[in-house]
Structure formats: structure tokens, C-alpha cells
Amino acid sequence: MTTSAPAPEEEYSIRPAERADLLAVVRIERESFPQPWPYDAFERFLDEPGFLVAVDALGAVAGYVVADVNRQYGRNRGHVKDIAVRPERRGSGVGSALLSRIVAVLLSHGADSIKLEVRESNDAAKRLYRKFRFEPLRRVPGYYDDEDAIVMVRKLE
Which residues does the UniProt record annotate as the domain N-acetyltransferase (predicted)? Predict the structure, then answer.
């Protein structure tokens, strides 16, 4: 008998981050980025609607996203500040599930567009963002200590 694997979105649940998640989030951050955010940076976003984690059936954190909405130039712009997935879970749909949920959260909090920054060399992330209709807006030289960033934007309906 052959059974099909469940869709990635069914393997993970997305929920607001809790204090108990912070060590796992910081571990993922350190595994993912050469200039990781410190623990207290994540702690400041606890209880914010834009700090979400993806957890597996055993409750282990597989990834997270941090985002907010700010008023700029008379418009409400969402900003995905940080998103990462455990290295061994990349490519399994966790990032897509997190991005899909955070777009809905930002829209529900009045955002009319969303921006994010991505390392110029991070082709996998850029592909994911394009899949979610983010378009490159501009390059920011030296945004990261060792690399330029590409600012990507998505307009919301």
C-alpha cells in the first residue's frame, strides 16, 4: 500500500512565539546568519502579532518569522525583519508556510505593502520571495557587513 506524504503546511503548525521558544529561535538564528540577532532582540518581540514560529508534531521549533507594520509616508508598510528555518528543514515548506501566514497577519493589521531585505547571494530566499510576489526594488550597498542587500516589496490587495 502506498501512502502519500502530507503537504508541508500540514506537517507544521504556525503559532505566536512564546518565551519557551526563544532558545530554539536563537539557535536557528545562529545557524542561519553570520550576524545573528541576540536573544534580547527576539525577547522584545514577544506578544507581538508578527512574531510567529512553525512547530512540528512534537512541538519542536522548525522556523520563525518576525515582522511588524509601521506608518511611512502616509502608508502602512509591513516589514519582514527576520525569517529563518532550521537547516535540516529547509526546502520542506516551512518557509512558505511562515511567509504565507505572516502576509495574512500583516494584511490584517493594515499593511498595504510589505518589504524585506535579503542578501544578494541568497538565491533560495529570493526564489521563495518571488514565489510570494515580492519584487526587487533596490540594492543597498553594505547593508550586511560583507554583502549588499536587495530590498524586495510586495503590494497587498
Answer: 12-157
* Three-class DSSP category at 101: helix
- Yes or no: domain 8-111 corresponds to CATH 3.40.630.30: yes
Domain boundaries, the chain: 8-111
Rounded Cα gap, residues 19 and 131, in angstroms: 31
Long-range contacts of 125-129 (CB under 8 A, 24+ apart): 125/95, 126/150, 126/152, 128/95, 128/96, 128/99, 129/99, 129/154
Tell me the residue type at 93. G
- Report residue 31 as a C-alpha cell: 545557524
Query: In the sheet that 147-155 helps form, which strands lie side by side, from edge to edge?
Result: 13-16, 51-55, 61-72, 75-85, 113-119, 147-155, 135-144
154 alpha carbon, distance to own chain's centre: 14
What would the pLDDT profile of 83-131 be if each residue is shown by its tens digit? 999 999 998 899 999 999 999 999 999 999 999 999 999 999 999 999 9
